[in-house]
Each structure stands twice: as C-alpha cells, then as structure tokens.
C-alpha cells in the first residue's frame, strides 16, 4: 500500500522514527509521513538552531563564556534560561534588566565609561576604573593626562569594535588607539614608521638641509 492509499484509509506505514528526534521533546510522531523526524515545526527549528549555533561557535574557535554566573543587572540565577538556549548566551533575566543595563546611564563620566566597557569589551564591573587608576589616569603610550578613555584590544583575536575581554591590553587616548589601529596593530610596521620619521627628522635638522 502506498502513502496516498494509507492516508485515505487512515493507516500508518512503517516509519524510520516513531518518536521525535529532538532531545528535549521525544514525543511520538502521529502524522503519516514516513520520513518525518520531528513531531512539529517547532522541534525542527530548535534542532536547526542548535546546529547553526554549534557551527558558528566552531567557526569562531572558542565557546561563549559568560562573564558572570547570574544576571549582570540584578544577579538572579540564569541556569534554566541558559539551558534553554542553544549556546547558553544569556546575560539578563528579563527585558527590564536588559533595558536598565543598556539605557540606565550612571551619573559620573568615569562610571559611564566603565559601564560602556562592560558591554563593548566584556570587562567585569569596575575593571575599567581599576585599569585607569593603575595607569595614573594617563595614556599607556604617550602619557597624556585625562585623555585615557579608549580601551585597546588585540584585533587579531576580535576584529572589530567589540572584544571578548581576554584580548584587552590597556587604556589609551583616542589618538594613540586610532594610530596603532591604522597601522594594523603590527609592531614591525610601527617600528618602520618610527624609523621613517627619525630618518626625515634627522635629515631636516642637518646643516646641509638647513643651508639648502
């Protein structure tokens, strides 16, 4: 008996899977398709989402590591919410905590920078302020005061404006941070640029160049 006759007769043919292959479901499959693996589209979408998340993490080369054990705003436990997500990437317990974290602005500028560093560079709360105080509130390269506002990170690890937190190096002024970024964070290229400037600086200050 073929599939169409079985449907008209209301009979079930032998199938490959009698139960849903979704690990979190396992419900018996009741529809007549012999090649069905899932009991519903929802289960199929959940499995596909897990596969996509696993492929994405494998491409990145490292799993997502939470910066805290609980909600980053109120500290509530996130074990159940992280278990329900394919990759466990949950940082807040509710939309209210998410809105408070992203839209609630601290009063002082240094605290606001620390607040931004938490979400843009995955730094623990207060770590930005500690780094600024350890450097004496100056840039780690040129030592200019009251300008150390940019968080420098290794772009070979995280290419872009955001960081995983493990590749953060120091606090720089905007000029130095943009400068080494333009030189592609390459020490050899930075040294070549320094030698180039020294060469032309010495040539400009030489007596022959002054007479000319």
Automatic annotation (TrEMBL):
<dbReference type="InterPro" id="IPR038563">
    <property type="entry name" value="Endonuclease_7_sf"/>
</dbReference>
<dbReference type="InterPro" id="IPR044925">
    <property type="entry name" value="His-Me_finger_sf"/>
</dbReference>
<protein>
    <submittedName>
        <fullName>Endogenous inhibitor of DNA gyrase (YacG/DUF329 family)</fullName>
    </submittedName>
</protein>
<dbReference type="InterPro" id="IPR004211">
    <property type="entry name" value="Endonuclease_7"/>
</dbReference>
<dbReference type="Pfam" id="PF02945">
    <property type="entry name" value="Endonuclease_7"/>
</dbReference>
């Amino acid at each position: 008996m073929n599939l169409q006759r079985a449907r008209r007769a209301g009979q079930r043919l032998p199938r490959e899977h009698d139960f849903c292959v979704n690990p979190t479901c396992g419900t018996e499959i009741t529809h007549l398709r012999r090649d069905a693996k899932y009991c519903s589209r929802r289960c199929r979408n959940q499995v596909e989402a897990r596969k996509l998340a696993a492929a994405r993490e494998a491409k990145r080369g490292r799993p997502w590591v939470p910066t805290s054990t609980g909600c980053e705003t109120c500290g509530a436990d996130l074990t159940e919410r992280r278990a329900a997500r394919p990759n466990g990437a949950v940082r807040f317990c509710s939309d209210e905590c998410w809105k408070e974290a992203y839209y609630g602005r601290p009063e002082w500028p240094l605290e606001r920078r620390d607040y931004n560093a938490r979400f843009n560079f995955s730094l623990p709360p207060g770590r930005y302020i500690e780094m600024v105080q350890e450097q004496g509130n100056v840039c780690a390269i040129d030592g200019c005061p009251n300008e150390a506002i940019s968080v420098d990170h290794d772009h070979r690890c995280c290419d872009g404006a955001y960081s995983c937190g493990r590749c953060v190096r120091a606090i720089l002024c905007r000029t130095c941070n943009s400068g080494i970024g333009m030189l592609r964070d390459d020490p050899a290229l930075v040294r070549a640029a320094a030698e180039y400037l020294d060469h032309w600086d010495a040539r400009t200050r030489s007596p022959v160049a002054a007479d000319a």
